[in-house]
Amino acid sequence: AMALCLKQVFNKDKTFRPRKKFEPGTQRFELYKKAQASLKSGLDLRAVVQLPPGESINDWIAVHVVDFFNRINLIYGTMSEYCTEKSCPIMSGGLKYEYRWQDDSKYKKPTKLSAPQYMCMLMDWIEMLINNEDIFPTRIGVPFPKQFQQVCTKILTRLFRVFVHVYIHHFDSIINMGAEAHVNTCYKHFYYFIREFSLVDHRELEPLVRMPQGWGG
């Protein structure tokens, strides 16, 4: 029943954005398949995120950043009807954490936005980056730029805030939709990945440190 329920939830096809796909035949597609296979094998998620022997760390990070973008996009897409200008006038994680938006174009200074506005800016911004060949090169033999991991840290830090907001402000909706197990697994996978490669500053993780399920570690 659980699988059926989830299928209904995630078949609404409410992704904010078209999914970014990996080109078959590329090394990154092979890596993506490898990552998906180990994910489905029921291995401990801590083991799943480890860099496979002989693989490039930047390729591994690139595959996961794109995959997490797709997954979190889908999770937020299913929540979005509950996350409105009215319900969430500020992008926050409880009373203690408020996230302001800043980019290099429209918002040069950190700016207060509603949660749905923030999410929209965030997904557009990430999509622009992962489709930029200078940052996420897809052609064989084209090297990653020097600032690649810095860019990924910024993307993953901001994606973590989506979990913070969804868990703290929309947890009831997750439960009511029967999506709790799916969201929890996605969160754990994401969490172990960013911890494995120290990609997000530990201070950013504080809002979800005291999760009721006592995860973390």
From TrEMBL:
Name of this chain's protein: MOB3C kinase
GO molecular function list: kinase activity
Entries under Pfam families matching the protein: Mob1_phocein (PF03637)
UniProt KW keywords: Kinase, Metal-binding, Transferase, Zinc
Binding locations of Zn(2+): 83, 88, 165, 170
Tagged with keyword Cell membrane: no
SUPFAM superfamilies in the cross-refs: Mob1/phocein (SSF101152)
Keyword Plastid: no
Organism, scientific name: Baryphthengus martii (Rufous motmot)
Signal sequence extent: none
Gene: Mob3c
